Amino acid sequence: MRVVRVSRFGGPEVLSVEKAAGGLPGEGEALVRVEFAGVNFIDVYHREGLYPSDLPLSLGLEGAGVVQETGLGVTGFSPGDRVAWTGLRGSYADEVVAPADRLVPLPAEVSLEQGAAAMLQGMTAHYLSHESYALTASDTCLVHAAAGGVGMLLCQMAKRAGARVIGTVSTEEKELRARSAGADEVIRYTEQDVVTEVERLTQGRGVQVVYDGVGKDTFYADLDSLALHGYLILFGQASGPVGPVDPQILNTKGSLYLQRPSLFHYMGTTEELQRRAGEVLRWVASGELEIRISSVFPLAEVAEAHRALEGRKTSGKVLLQS
């Protein structure tokens, strides 16, 4: 089979598609043929070494495919079942051997492409809007990169909760996509000052929560956009990591809250994973949640997929097809 590996940290050029021996499922495991793998910024962080990992590193955490074989003790799945997953290292590959209790069955109404696209970003949007800060109809939230993969899902979930959504984007085309996902107001940060616009749109009160996957470039503007007792949920660092922060700034800006969460702490148990993924996939199946797939690259073109993601050339999910 083929697998994407990194033998040194760096740019997309360090990605290598290599041949490897296929695996066999052990007790409690399943062998899955990968049809589609999700491409996410966390993969970029691993590739660059921002998230420390041992080398050589097999890349990719998310995908969807078809069960080929099950090991002893597996009762929930059979060969031919369609499944999806996230948090499984080495998902940029033709096949994976996965713990069966980390696989999620796909509803019949959800395609393999949708399944691969929904897991990491869909569950991220779910925990952000339901637990990091549980949105209500009385809240206004600021969503950065509102036309991106997480951003469009987060806008939809925020509107589902009744909140008012202010999104940030870079272009007119992305503004239209953010609005189609439910953003009530859109700030084009390439043309407008985010803090000034938030102040205008909230009559000087600020927003109750900022959902920020950008990081370094937006962090201090986030603090200035929050209402008293507001929440800054920093869930990514697409522009680079935020430097050291004096906690006193949270006091001076209005007794603010700051969280740096990870999805993997919100799906730590099998029960939590199945509940969160099941809810997201049910919404996809019913049409309540739209999954936008921006680009699908062959596995052999993984470097181009990373360049497209990092170059902000996408609006929605990027997938690799085996």
What is the secondary structure topology, with strand pairs?
Layout: E1 2-6, E2 15-19, E3 29-39, H1 41-48, E4 57-58, E5 62-70, E6 82-86, E7 95-99, E8 104-105, H2 112-132, E9 140-143, H3 149-160, E10 164-169, H4 172-180, E11 185-188, H5 194-201, E12 207-212, H6 219-225, E13 226-234, H7 248-252, E14 257-259, H8 270-286, E15 293-298, H9 302-310, E16 317-321
Parallel strand pairs: 9-10, 9-12, 10-11, 12-13, 13-14, 15-16
Antiparallel strand pairs: 1-2, 1-4, 3-5, 3-7, 3-16, 5-6, 6-8
Helix pairs in contact: 2-3, 2-8, 5-6
Commentary on this structure:
- Strands 3, 5, 6, 7, 8, 15 and 16 form a 7-stranded mixed sheet that branches. Strands 11-10-9-12-13-14 form a 6-stranded parallel sheet, sandwiched between helices.
- It is globular.
- The mean pLDDT is 95.
- It has helices at residues 41-48, 112-132, 149-160, 172-180, 194-201, 219-225, 248-252, 270-286, 302-310; strands at 2-6, 15-19, 29-39, 57-58, 62-70, 82-86, 95-99, 104-105, 140-143, 164-169, 185-188, 207-212, 226-234, 257-259, 293-298, 317-321.
- The protein starts with a strand and ends with a strand.
- With 322 residues, it is of the alpha/beta class.
- The chain folds into 2 domains: 2-120 and 269-321, Quinone Oxidoreductase, Chain A, domain 1; 136-260, NAD(P)-binding Rossmann-like Domain (Rossmann fold), CATH 3.40.50.720.
- 30% of the residues lie in helices and 27% in strands.
Helix content: 25-40%
What fraction strand?
25-35%
**CATH H level of the largest domain: which superfamily?**
Medium-chain alcohol dehydrogenases, catalytic domain
Number of strands: 16
Q: What Rg do the Cα atoms give?
A: 20 Å
Q: How does the helix and strand content classify structurally?
A: alpha/beta
| The CATH C-level class name of the largest domain | Alpha Beta
Along the chain, the helix and strand elements come as EEEHEEEEEHEHEHEHEHEHEHEHE
Number of domains: 2
Query: Could you please say which CATH topology of the largest domain applies here?
Result: Quinone Oxidoreductase, Chain A, domain 1
